[in-house]
Amino acid sequence: MEVAEEIQPSTPQPTDEAISATDSKPTEKRKREEEEDGEASPPPAGGARADPARNPLWKTSLCSFFRRSAVGHCSHGDACRYAHGEAELRQRPDKSWDPTSERAKKMRMADRPEDPSEEDEAVDVNSLDKCVTGLSNKWISDDLKRFLDGQGILYKSAKKKKGMSVGFVLFEDAEQVKNAIEVLNETSANGRQIKVADANRRSHEKKHTTVVTESHQHNEDNSVEDVEAIGNGNCAAEGLGPKTRRVCDVVTPLAHMSYSDQLEYKKNSLSQMLKRLTKNTRKACPDAVPLPDWISKSREIGGLPCKLEGILESPLIDGYRNKCEFSVGQSVEGKRTVGFMLGNFREGVTAVEEPVNCPNVSRISCKYALIFQDFLQSSEFPVWNRVDNTGFWRQFTVREGRNPGQTAIAQNADAAIAEVMLIVQVCSVNIDEELMKNEFKRMAQALAEGAASSSPPLPLTKLVVQDHKGMSNAAPADCPLLPLPIPNIGDPTLGVSITTEARIHDYISNLRFSISPTAFFQVNTLAAERLYSLAGDWAELSSDTLLFDVCCGTGTIGLTLAHRVGMVIGIEMNVSAVSDANRNAEINGIKNCKFVCGKAEDVMGSLLKEYLGISQEHKEASEDTETNSTASTSSEEMLLCEGSRSMGVPEQKLEGETPVDSKNEDGNNNSLAIESLNHETSECSNQKAEGTHVPIGSLRKCLTECNETTQDNEEGKDARQDNSKCINLNEHNTEGENRGKGNCISEDKNAKDAASVHQFKDVVAIVDPPRVGLHPIVIKVLRTHPRIRRLVYISCNPESLVANAIELCTPTSETSEKGQGNRGWRRMSNAGLARQRAKNMPNSEPFRPVRAMAVDLFPHTPHCEMVMLLER
Ligand SMILES: C[S@@+](CC[C@H](N)C(=O)[O-])C[C@H]1O[C@@H](n2cnc3c(N)ncnc32)[C@H](O)[C@@H]1O
C-alpha cells in the first residue's frame, strides 16, 4: 500500500524482500531499486555517494546479501555501502546500531528484565500518579473518565489532552493502582493495546506517575527504550544504567558529528526525500500523457528529480540561534529549571533540564536562562505543571538582535549582539494582582542585576510579560503581551529604563528589520541571508519582474530583493508581521513593495486576477479561491486540505522540547499583543479587528500601574500610518463585493497599481510556507496561472516541499482521471494525498524541477532549509 511505501526511513536499508532466499546475487527487484536510488548508476555530483568513506551512514547497516550468502559474498564487494559482517559495522549517527545486529540484540537483552513477568511488575503499585498509553487521540478527560468508569476502575482524578494517546490518572491507594493495572493491561481501546507504566517519577517526590501510552508511537529501533527511559524518569534520575537521555542529545542530536559529517548526512537524507518527487510524479502521471523529460532523465542522476547542487554551510555553527524559547518546569530531580524538555509530553515526559552543552544556544541565552532560573528558586509563585496545567511561570524566551556587519559576527558572535528582548510567559489565573506586580518588579531587578554582573555584561533592551491562560503550548493571537520597565543597575539614580515598544532589530543584507515580539524571523540570521540571496539568484530577477513573496513574514525576502525587481507583492496572514513588513519598507526607504494581510489561500487568486488578469485555465482555480474565501469550499476539498495539514508533518509545537526550528511554530504562534495595544484603531484586517478587542484583564491593569510606558514608535513613525499601506484582501475576494471598509488602499489606487503591473514582462513567485507547506488552493492557483513561469520554493520541511511539488509538476490530461474523492485520506501519506489532488488539477502546464540546493540554518540538528527552482 502507498502508506507503507511513503513512510520508509530516509536512510536506505537493505530489505529482506529484495533478496532471493536461494540466490546470493542481487535480484532484479533490488537492481531496479538500486537504480532508482542511484546505487547502480554513476554517483551524481553532489549525490549520496560522492565520497562514500565520508558518508556518515557508510556501513551502518548490515548487508543482507552478504549475510544470506553461504560463502559471505556480495556482488558489490568492498564498494558495498552496507557492512559485510559485524566487524565492519559502524554505529549510526544517532548512536544506535543496526537493529538486526548482534550488538543491538545484546543491548536489548541487557535492558530487559530477566524474568519477563517483571515487565508488568516494573510498574510501581505504590506510586499513585500513573500514565496510560494507547488511548484514542480524540479523547478528552471526560472520555477517559467514562472509559475508566466503564471498566470499573476506581481513581481519584484522570486527565487527558486531545491529540495525545497518553492520559494521566491519579489513584487514591495501591489497591486501586493494582486493580487498574490488571484491568487496563488486559484491555484494548479502538484496537490499540493499552499499557500502564510509571512515568517521570521524580526521586524527591513520594508520589509517582504512570503513563498510558500507545505502543505504535515507538519506532522499530532503539527509540522504544529511549522513550521508556524518559517515561521512567526515575531511571535517569537515579542513574540506572543506559536508559538516560541528555538534553543536548534531544535538542542537538547531530552535535557529536563533525560539521562536515552533519552536512553530508543532511544532504543524503534530503536527496532520499527528493527521489520521492520523481517516484510519485511518475505514479501520478496520467496514462494518456507521456512522462515528462525530467522523469526520464532522472535515472542519470540517481533518481533525483533535478540536480541537488549541494548544501550551503551556516556561517555560524555554534550559538547561532537568535531566539530560544525555554520551558519552565521541574528537572528530573525536582529543581525549578529553565531549559528544554527531555522529550515531549506525548511520550509522558514533563521534566525540564538546563540547556547545557546545546551548541546551538548562544552564550547569552544560556546565561539568561540561568539568571531567570536562579530568580525562580526564590519565587513564591509555582512553576508550570504540564500534567494538570497549573502554575504561574510558563516559558522564558530570549530574542537577540545584532549590529550590522558580518565579519565581526563570525569571529565573535556575542560581541555582535546589540539588543536582547526577554519574554516571560506566565498564567495569571487565580493570582493576586498586587503580589504579581511586586513579583514582576523583583523579577525585573533580578534579570537586570544578573545581566549587569555578567562578564562581559549582557545587553538587556526589552522585557515583556505575556499572560497566557490557555492550556495549549502556543499562546493565541490575542494573548496580552506587555512591556515592563527595566531597572537601571549601572546608575540607580537614572531610575528605570522605560520600555517603549517591545521590538527587536536585526540586519539582513544591510537592511534593518524591526520585529515584533512574536513575529516570525529566521532563527539563524546569517544563514538566512544566504538563503534569501540564493532564492533571489535563482529567481532571475530584473526590473521587469513582478515578484510575489508568498508567506512573507516581516518582509525579509521581498525587501532584500526589492532593488532587483520592478515590484514586490508580499502576502502574509499575521497582522503584526504585515505591520512590521510595512514599517521595514519605510525605515529602509523601499517604495516598490506592497504587503497584503490575509491567508494566501484566501487572497492569492484575487491578487493574481487583479495584477495579471485572468486566463481561461486560471478561471476554475480562481473560482475555487473565491469559494474558499467565502468559507464554502467543497467538503471533499476541505477534507483533502485538512488531511494535508493533519498528516505526516507535525503541526503542533512541542513546547520547550527543543529550540524548534519549525516555521509553523513561529509562523502560527504570532501574537497580536503589542500591535493590539499600540494600533488599536487599525482597520488592516479581520485578524486585526479581533485583536483590537483584546480582553487584557488583570495583568494589564497591574502592569499599567507599574509601568508608566510611553508607547513611542522607535522609528519615529506612527505604525497606524504603516498600516494604511496594507491591502486587506480578506474582504476583497469576490468581484463586486471587494471594496469593503477594511480595504486600506483606495479603489483608484488599486486600479492604477493593477494597470501598471500588467506591464511587467516577468512574473515570479517565491514561496516560503510554514512546515505544513502551501495550502492546496494556493498550489492550484499558482499552477494554473499561465503567467507564472518561475517559482522558487523555500522549505524547512522537505516532506511538504515534495508533496507540494508533486501537485505542481504532475502533468494533467485533457480528459483528466479524477481522483477517488476523499475516501481513505486519513490513511494517506502526504505524497499520496498530493497524487490524489494532482489528479483533480485543472488541465494546465506543469512545472518542472530545475535545481535544488540545501541551506543549513540549523547546525547540530537534523533540520535543514531547501530551495528548489521550478520552471515551465
Ligand atoms: C517560514 S515563515 C517565512 C517568513 C518569511 N518569508 C521569512 O523568511 O522571514 C512562514 C510565514 O508564513 C505565514 N503563514 C502561515 N500560514 C499562512 C497562510 N496560510 N497564508 C499566508 N501566510 C501564512 C506565517 O505567519 C509566517 O510568517
UniProtKB/TrEMBL annotation:
The keyword Zinc-finger applies. A zinc finger (C3H1-type) spans 57-87. One of its GO terms (molecular function) is RNA methyltransferase activity. The keyword Aminoacyl-tRNA synthetase does not apply. GO terms for biological process: methylation; RNA processing. Residues 88-115, 652-666 have a biased composition (Basic and acidic residues). Residues 46-55, 627-637 have a biased composition (Low complexity). It comes from the Eukaryota. Residues 1-55, 88-123, 617-671 are annotated as: Disordered. Residues 57-87 form the C3H1-type domain. S-adenosyl-L-methionine binds at Q522, E572, D768. Residues 121-201 form the RRM domain. The active site is at C796. Keywords: Metal-binding, Methyltransferase, RNA-binding, S-adenosyl-L-methionine, Transferase, Zinc, Zinc-finger. Belongs to the class I-like SAM-binding methyltransferase superfamily. RNA M5U methyltransferase family. This is Zinc finger CCCH domain-containing protein 24.
